[in-house]
Amino acid sequence: MSDADVSDADVSDTDVSGTGGADTSDVRRPTITITVDGDACCAMGRCAATEPDLFDQDPATGTVVLLDPTPSSPELHASARLCADLCPCGAITVTEH
């Protein structure tokens, strides 16, 4: 094959996804559900300081406010797990599905 043949080659069927051409439309992505126990919360604020996209604090009581119980981003999954580990009161639970 000459250089001209290579440059004119149709590359529209070339798989660059890294899946080997496999159909990944049915691949199940991990999901999580976050729950908080407001009664157990001791208002330390570690969760809100660590991941403000998921947690805030009630301005009157300082207790946790959950902003997104089912985040889709794997990065937020990791942050939610970290916040649950950091919570000194055990008020945050992350359930994997």
Automatic annotation (TrEMBL):
Looking up InterPro entries in the UniProt record yields: Fe-S_cluster_ET
Q: Which cofactor does it need?
A: [3Fe-4S] cluster
Q: Where is this region: Disordered?
A: 1-30
A Pfam entry, by short name:
Fer4_13
Where does the source fall among the domains of life? Answer: Bacteria
What the entry lists under PANTHER family is as follows:
FERREDOXIN
Q: Which UniProt keywords apply?
A: 3Fe-4S, Electron transport, Iron, Iron-sulfur, Metal-binding, Transport
From start to end residue, where is composition biased (Acidic residues)?
A: 1-13
Full protein name: Ferredoxin
Tell me the SUPFAM superfamilies matching this sequence. 4Fe-4S ferredoxins (SSF54862)
UniProt source species: Streptomyces lutosisoli
